[in-house]
Amino acid sequence: MTDTPLIHPVILCGGSGTRLWPLSRQSYPKQFTPLIGDETLFQASVRRLSGVGFAAPVVLTGEPFRFIVLEQLAAAQTQPQGVLIEPEGRNTAPAVLAAALWLASRDANALMLVAPSDHVIPDAAAFRTAILAAAPRAAAGDLVTFGIHPTRAETGYGWLELAEGADASATTPQALARFVEKPDEANAEAMLAAGSYLWNAGIFLLSARAVIAAFEMHAREMIAPVRAAVDGAQDDLGFTRLNAAAWADVPDNSIDYAIMEHADNLAVMPFGDGWSDLGDWNAVWAECGPDADGNVLSDNATALGCAGTLLRSEDGAQELVGIGLEDMIAVAMPDAVIVARRNDSQRVKEAVTALKARGVKQATEFPVDHRPWGWFESLVVGERFQVKRIVVKPGAALSLQSHHHRSEHWIVVQGTAKVTVDDEIKLIGENESVYIPLGAVHRMENPGKLEMVLIEVQTGSYLGEDDIIRYEDVYART
Amino acid sequence: MTDTPLIHPVILCGGSGTRLWPLSRQSYPKQFTPLIGDETLFQASVRRLSGVGFAAPVVLTGEPFRFIVLEQLAAAQTQPQGVLIEPEGRNTAPAVLAAALWLASRDANALMLVAPSDHVIPDAAAFRTAILAAAPRAAAGDLVTFGIHPTRAETGYGWLELAEGADASATTPQALARFVEKPDEANAEAMLAAGSYLWNAGIFLLSARAVIAAFEMHAREMIAPVRAAVDGAQDDLGFTRLNAAAWADVPDNSIDYAIMEHADNLAVMPFGDGWSDLGDWNAVWAECGPDADGNVLSDNATALGCAGTLLRSEDGAQELVGIGLEDMIAVAMPDAVIVARRNDSQRVKEAVTALKARGVKQATEFPVDHRPWGWFESLVVGERFQVKRIVVKPGAALSLQSHHHRSEHWIVVQGTAKVTVDDEIKLIGENESVYIPLGAVHRMENPGKLEMVLIEVQTGSYLGEDDIIRYEDVYART
């Protein structure tokens, strides 16, 4: 084992699934939520790839999620090796290449374990064992993909065909014949029956060197712009911001299409069936361990005469009751509720598209808005007023700003706020308030060691988030 | 028609149905909600019994609902003849007797049209015609009950058996053989097939004199305490508050059991089938006029591949999506959601009982709390703080009060507040605030002509509604 190069987890964290709406929305996708258990899927993905043999993680994410990534890593007491910000989503191929180029410059022998951030693998130790077992093969230059033992004729995944003589139940990397695109039902049934096919989970163990070589051979056009984006990257508050101008020239492609379907130095590492991509609510139901009646119930959920049903209430202040439901899912949030036949879970995406077309904000926006300094939520919106709860992290500060169309009343209900209003700076304690007149230049900071919670009452003729002039911002948003 | 005595609508408005939970809760039952159309069921009941031949309504209700009744009558521009407050619910018999005694002292020939406040009768004109047609018979001393043409073998209602030779489709009162208690399925089927049975809708046309005579004959024990409660009633802010001490001795009974099942001066007025007691969500679905797919959708509700399904979102800020649902109901509120098979609608009551047993406040409490001066709702409850939206009616005032455990910040966001804090009285306009220290004696009034809306931020160690000392109250709650 001592000869194996260090394995660098490369966590792909840019995507935004809508199939688990309303819990997963564009503004706060499912990897950042505690869908199963107490930690978020992203945190579980990071924890799973830590320990002996593993380097600190490299995270690839998008601009809107960078502070959520940092916050969740901090909460999991993980110091990342790097957080690479993709200026725009370009699918997995450029992300993997960027990570390879970035890592190669730090560790010439780096192995990369590329994994999505929104999958579930309950047996983390077994997964690490499989990774370590595959490491020599990857170090030798092969492109190792992880193949999951299939349990159903799934048409939603790509499949992997093992080479003649390879053993699907082996615990070492096997020869791979080819990548199979998402099949139709008949082909899926045939592959399930054949026993020589595995699911493609989108998890790879690759040496940075082999990745770069594969791109040079099969997707040469991607090299120059991605290299320019990495070489031109800027360090920004601890993030590595890939160069946007260079990135704009990067073609959009998946790692499967760009590389894997063309390469001949492929291997597959078979892995047990304790894996799920939580692709829809049906999968969440299955992963949560249904009870004797086949039900999965969250806190605040009550089932009468239900079977095979998922009832999730996502808010402690909301009760959810199901009566006589069979093979259904119901997920309730204060601003959005979905009820569906479990077998129609895939159509959730369609519903979100319909809501989006109608301009419904819940289609894409999560009720809680995460910012670098903490988060806020709107408690009520009236005709000429709005009330928000604002939570500011210890040591954090909002930008120095002013508004053209609203005044604000701030009442501190927990902790201490340092408040700037025009030329005056003062400390506001719990149960104290301050008034920010229209046009005043103001800032809110939390100088303390505990979270500061503040109720903001806005009044004015226009209350949009875009009525803001920023003068200074520690998060470089001016 | 000129010889017919005036018909006094007697609206029974004390009940609290839980079968339409979460829209109908103990603290705000279904008759006060706009379940169908824009007016509430109570308002529709009052409007239905107005016009030529009808006196102003007499409403019987309970202590918690008295201001809601007044408010909804005012909104419907109806001046009641009286609002009688039952100190405790004692079922329909004492309520009808109290109304009869109260009316007899004002109009010796009074006819009473006794009706629940939570039924739907789409063709109000036809109903009034039927009432007027039955009036001579009631004036002559018979007890006239309204019989609905049955459309199904309903086991949830009592039935009425017509006398030999009576005509179920007549438009004049017919002879009634007997009241039939809620039947089993076989008996319900037999009655439906026989054609000589009608549903008992709990609607009666009776002379006050005949009611008193019937009680004297069949339920004599009720007379003395109910008379004492009526004679000892107190006028209180326009309400007639029945004497509580006397009322405590009144036995609990329904008008059917106490009188109708024993009387021999009965008649039945057949009525068309455009009637519903909205007894469960299935009935609401049916009354709302399902579309071509059998669906009933509220605003903010989206159906994909649904049939025979009711999707109701009760809040403009909450989206409800149904996918692949067949014969289901889903009703969403920000604090409670129910999803049920339409045929299991009757079990909603059971669910509410289960929630109650767990001490869940949503089982009984509506999120909006109606008070004599307006209403309030809690927007967020934290560990040591709570934020409320408070809406005060023009000219209304909260009690002069103080709290032991909390301070309050008030921010006016609409209208003008007249605020008393200890010895100081001042006017607070939109976008102004005032602080109420712990222990300060304070009051909030709306001196204006428009609704006043105020955001209250409470901080303190205990934030219960019962931390209140009332010094003065225009609504007699001190």
UniProtKB/TrEMBL annotation, chains A, B:
Residues 9-286 form the Nucleotidyl transferase domain. It catalyses: alpha-D-mannose 1-phosphate + GTP + H(+) = GDP-alpha-D-mannose + diphosphate. It is an enzyme of class 2 (transferase). InterPro entries: GMPP_N (IPR049577), Man1P_GuaTrfase/Man6P_Isoase (IPR006375), Man6P_isomerase-2_C (IPR001538), ManC/GMP-like_b-helix (IPR054566), Mannose-6P_isomerase_type2 (IPR051161), NTP_transferase_dom (IPR005835), Nucleotide-diphossugar_trans (IPR029044), RmlC-like_jellyroll (IPR014710). Keywords: GTP-binding, Isomerase, Nucleotide-binding, Nucleotidyltransferase, Transferase. GO terms for molecular function: mannose-1-phosphate guanylyltransferase (GTP) activity; mannose-6-phosphate isomerase activity. It comes from the Bacteria. SUPFAM superfamilies: Nucleotide-diphospho-sugar transferases (SSF53448), RmlC-like cupins (SSF51182). Residues 369-473 form the Mannose-6-phosphate isomerase type II C-terminal domain. Its EC number is 2.7.7.13. Pfam families: ManC_GMP_beta-helix, MannoseP_isomer, NTP_transferase. Belongs to the mannose-6-phosphate isomerase type 2 family. NCBIfam families: GMP_PMI. This is mannose-1-phosphate guanylyltransferase. It comes from Roseovarius pelagicus.
